[in-house]
Design a protein that fits this description.
Shape: globular
Number of strands: 12
Strand order of the largest sheet: 1-5-7-8
Oligomer: single chain
Helix content: 40-55%
Radius of gyration: 20 Å
Distance between the termini: 23 Å
Structural class: alpha/beta
Strand content: 15-25%
Order of helices and strands: EEEEEEHEEHHHHHHHEEHEEH
């Protein structure tokens, strides 16, 4: 099983990354602030604009360490990676599947089955944990509607129908997302999903974590030899990691959404960590971003039992396992892609 390595996060915009020996050196105004050995790293994620030296990017690419550049509020900008892993036969099969709408439709059904199943169990779990604080009947009705959408997914004849079903299920799920926020209701509320830019504290957190999860999925796909830019549900668009977005769909409710809700309900963040810009965009302060990243890293190290493999592994390894299962399906080693079906 793949070992969960460390990710180095640079959360402030005025830092420059350079290389010295086997170390990543963090500079500000040409002054060294810190250095980190490259050994044991699997990725670098920087939320700044100053950049990184060509020597560092080359060294990271050679060692299989990806560098992801993001804005301060989590919007993906670019990724630097090394040579493509895996064999050309696997990637050619992936491209054939992507060009075949029927084949794409079948794989997309499994991605969405995982997403809807996990969305349903997020609602079911919270009704079990807080039956006296929530309108259980209301949440049960929404859960049933999502179950109905899961059935419709199996009968969808094309990708357009799938997207329509997914949109209806997402609308149902997010219609009660605010109900799952149990603390700090005056400062953390959810009316609808908005992004580019996020317009409230909750959406700012969701967008940031979704971006981190997308980057993890893209790295996992590259590690098993798949092209993260060629998807099945999300179609080709220049610069978009479509397959990473596909893979992320089933992990968003169980991993990302529950993580955001947990941080709010446990009061691990507060309103002072957010500010609104003139254009209405909500961003996080550097300290809040660091707190979220620290908690995210701890979350990735939590152990779960994988529903398909029936093995214990860390949350952070789940994207890699799902990418590996997808590669095995495309190669013809297994009969279908098994989505990640979470239930706790």
């Amino acid at each position: 099983m793949r070992k969960l390595l460390n990710t180095l996060y640079i959360t402030t915009p005025d830092k420059y990354l350079s290389l010295e020996g086997e170390n990543i050196v963090i500079l500000q105004n040409e002054q060294e602030l810190a250095r980190y050995p490259m050994h044991g790293l699997e990725a670098v994620i920087t939320c700044g604009y100053t950049g990184a030296s060509p020597a560092l990017m080359g060294a990271c690419a050679k060692r299989g360490i990806s560098i992801c550049f993001m804005t301060q509020y989590g919007k993906f900008l670019a990724r630097v990676t090394g040579e493509v892993c895996g064999n050309v036969i696997l990637r050619k099969m992936q491209y054939r599947y992507s060009d075949d709408e029927n084949a794409s439709n079948q794989i997309a059904k499994n991605f969405l089955t995982g997403k809807l199943y996990n969305s349903k169990w997020v609602l079911e779990r919270v009704t079990r944990d807080y039956p006296l604080r929530l309108d259980v009947e209301k949440l049960k009705i929404k859960s049933k509607l999502i179950s109905d959408c899961m059935v419709q997914v199996q009968y969808a004849e094309n990708l357009e129908q799938l997207r329509g079903i997914e949109g209806e299920a997402a609308k149902t799920y997010f219609s009660v997302f605010d109900d799952l926020i149990l603390q700090q209701k005056d400062d953390f509320f959810f009316k609808d999903r908005n992004r580019r830019p996020p317009l409230d504290n909750v959406n700012a957190m969701l967008s940031f974590i979704y971006s981190l999860l997308t980057s993890a999925c893209a790295s996992a796909l590259e590690a098993v030899g798949l092209d993260p830019y060629v998807g099945f549900l999300h179609r080709d668009r220049p610069g978009r990691v479509s397959l990473a977005l596909d893979l992320m769909e089933e992990l968003r409710p169980a991993l990302a959404d529950r993580f955001v809700l947990s941080m709010i309900n446990r009061k691990e963040i507060n309103k002072d960590g957010f500010f609104t810009k003139e254009n209405g965009a909500v961003e996080m302060t550097d300290s809040t971003r660091k707190s979220i990243i620290t908690a995210w890293q701890n979350k990735k190290m939590e152990e779960i039992r994988h529903p398909y493999l029936d093995e214990k592994l860390e949350w952070g390894v789940v994207p890699y396992v799902q990418a590996l299962l997808l590669a095995r399906y495309i190669r013809g080693d297994i009969d279908g892609y098994p989505p990640f079906l979470w239930k706790a």
